[in-house]
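Lecture 7 notes: from sequence to structure.

We start with a single chain of 242 residues. Read the sequence below before looking at the structure.
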Amino acid sequence: MINGLISLSTSTMVKVNSSRRAGRCVICLAGAAQDGLCQDCRNDLPANRWCCLTCALPLPFPTPDGHCGECLASPPRYSRSLIPWRYQFPVDGMIGRYKYHGQHKFARPLLAGFTDYIEHHLAAEGRPQVLIPAPMHWTRRWQRGFNQAQDIAEAVGRRLDLPVNARLVRRTRRVHAQRKLNRTSRLANLQGLFEVTGPVPANIAIVDDVVTTGATVRELASVLTRAGAKEIQVWALARTPG
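Now the structure, written as tokens:
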């Protein structure tokens, strides 16, 4: 069951990441797992059921207009967010083990569920012309060894036959963690952060692992809009509750 994630020891982590455990649940190690999760653990993932239609901020209950207060007061340059889970236990731990420790088996079930979710919504939302992974500064990518947003975009692109362009936007510098800053500081922190390097299609989707404050995807969407994008969606694995 899902509670087993808390008590995973170092030796258990090695088992999870070995090929001998490929058919077991990455969380509880139960057998008969599909795409790395047993059905009980899959059912316990925190679905982002009630959320803002624009930014996917989790809401305590459905709202009449389907939008959060910030998107009503200051609409972003993107029109829709497709984010299936809340960034809470155990999704936060699964993403963390993948993102910061390179344990890709924790990403496998999330990527499978994510592509199913995106495929289900594509008919209503329309297919973007290209997927743009949220860019990572080269020094951070060098330290981590990969850009998780690019991994996610490429997994979805392969499954749904959508092109991925990881070079269309680049970060000009490293920045302080957004979560620790207030709104004014976040906006100042992001000013001039992104640079478009080529022609931008009219219909695009920005892909990331987690949307936290939302300031980064707002800035990225603004830069892409100024470069010619007309319809922008945001796709991510998880959204941090407000």
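Residues 116 and 156 are 9 Å apart (CA to CA). Keep this in mind for problem set 3.
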